[in-house]
Amino acid sequence: MKGGTGYSIVRTKNRPASTGRLFIISAPSGAGKSTICRSLRDRLPDLRYSISTTTRPPRPGEKNGVDYHFTDIATFKAGITADRWAEWAEVHGNYYGTSAVFIARERAAGRDVLLDIDVQGAAQLRRNYPDAVTIFIMPPSAAVLRQRLERRGTDTPDVIEERITNACQEMAQRSAYQHIIVNDNLEDAVQALVAIISGDGNHQ
Known about the structure:
- The chain has 204 residues and is of the alpha/beta class.
- The protein has a single domain (22-198), classed as Rossmann fold.
- It is 38% helix and 19% strand.
- It contains seven helices and nine strands; from the N terminus they run βαβββαββαβαβααβα.
- The chain has helices spanning 33-43, 73-81, 100-108, 119-128, 142-152, 157-171, 186-198, and strands at 22-26, 48-49, 53-54, 69-70, 85-91, 94-99, 113-116, 133-138, 179-182.
- Strands 2-7-1-8-9 form a five-stranded parallel beta sheet, sandwiched between helices. A four-stranded mixed beta sheet has the order 4-3-6-5.
- Helix 1 (33-43) packs across helix 7 (186-198) and helix 5 (142-152) runs antiparallel to helix 6.
- The longest helix is centred in the C-terminal third of the chain and has 15 residues, at 157-171.
- It starts with 21 loop residues before the first strand and ends in a 6-residue tail after the last helix.
């Protein structure tokens, strides 16, 4: 335990050495997951990051193909019919999905893949990829989470209340993940995540 950040290091069992590992990270909105993942990718540049596809409008500063692949609902639903998504979910009235082709291609080439996924999608991925390493990022408290959402300034008060309610439901599912990181200090949280991904120990 370091700075309120609890973690352990594992090596995925029953996985061919030539196959890349799959890391699934989930967190409630406002827990700092996006910031942590950006720092992680800076420190581990060989880690392949799966960019999700979504039907929600871009937020200020977001770029297509960088933050998300933005698409329309009709195109997304066509992908569901064609089994194009490794997982997909409807969250806050918008659709999100992860490319199954991307995961298969990168792992077959021996590259590790990082997925930034909500809890609905992570449940699907655990069934489809039982060898995946799963990590849940927590805010220190609901009060801190509320402050972060208000500071972000992208949501109305009603939407913030909805996100807080959903966050509590998501945090109740944290026991389904192999690792839990409490983001009360950004640097500690990033170091914990780097340790999980780059570590080669085999203990809980």
